Amino acid sequence: YIERENYSSSSFRFYFPHGKPQPTIALERTLRGILSAFDTFPNNQVTKDELPRILKICGLPFYWRMPVMIFCQQHNSGLAERQKFVEFWKQMNVYCHDAASRFVYILSRGQRYRNYILPEDLIPLVQDVVDTHPGLAFLKEATEFHSRYVHTVIARIFYSVNRSWSGKISIAELKKSDLLEIITLLEEEDDINQIMAFFSYEHFYVIYCKFWELDKDHDLLINQDDLSRHSDHALSSRIVERIFSGCVTRNDNRKNPDDEPKMSYTDFVWFLLSEEDKRTPTAIEYWFRCMDLDGDGVLSMYELEFFYEEQQQRMESIGIESLPFEDCLCQMLDMIKPQNRDAITLGDLKRCKMTHVFFDTFFNLEKYLDHEQRDPFATQRDEYVSDWDRFAAQEYELLITEEND
Fold first, then answer.
1. Structural element, H or E, at residue 281
2. Owning domain of residue 325
3. How large is the average pLDDT for residues 22-41?
4. Element (H, E) at 222
5. Final residue of a structural domain among 113, 134, 153
6. How far apart are the C-alpha atoms of 247 and 339, rounded to whole Å?
7. pLDDT at 252
């Protein structure tokens, strides 16, 4: 016997993981709009330039058009056909009712077992931005830059959105990010550099120039010696070695087991974003992985001493007196305030507002000395501008000045 009140309407909650379905009447109205729009085109087919008119009826953003075109064209014809589009629209509405699940459905071309997107799925969308966005019109002729820009944007998207480090952006990760809002913003904002996240040309230019400086043979791969030259040898050799150990890179690009590991351009994008803004969740995870030598999920006092030892040696070699490790350790523990003073966890570092100072102390001599010369707590920082945005703006100005000279 179950009491009647257990059946009250408040007891039932329908769960819609992919959004709440639209009323049938709304779907039918949209379908009629799609059919009548296709009727106005020859052979009921539309080109990519005409497709946004159909997408508008469906409530889909302008820059979803190339993934939709690829989904709905016959034999790479470059034409979306009415029947194929209607099938796609009906099928998608059976499963997907919110923007994130629709985006994944479209980019995975309706593969039901795929609830994630891969880096290559984004190539047609970002290439379309290169081809048509007014803010990138000057890139039209410079085709050698197209692929570099596309891969930079995709690497930045995965860096920020793929919080699980899996190499696959899930629907849940997409919902927690602002990626879809930014893709929609692209059709409203003509100045691509105003869109700081992912698509800024200025940011791409800074990243690519930094890589080009290090990649002496221009094979789009750099080794440990190349990376050690970054920012005038600011990083310790021990941290550079850890970066190449595989703890933060996808693969080591070795053709033979005896070859030295090399870093790809995509991995360099992750490195530079992490190096220039150590406050972001991905950057904190990046450097934590590098410093966690035994992979046990905590930074032990031994590991901290291992990295600080080289910092001390480097300071001594240039005639700067260094703090003994014990004194430095006390400072760091007071700053981080770990729950257990014998080890520092990832959670401890994410809770602390001074984590960037912590990391620089152990492996970036230039930034460590910079922090030492000023009180980091007293520094006024514009909360609306990230460390990365500030760095990219300064570096872009320097690059343009050098070119003009």
1. helix 281-291
2. 205-390
3. 87
4. strand 221-222
5. 113
6. 25
7. 73
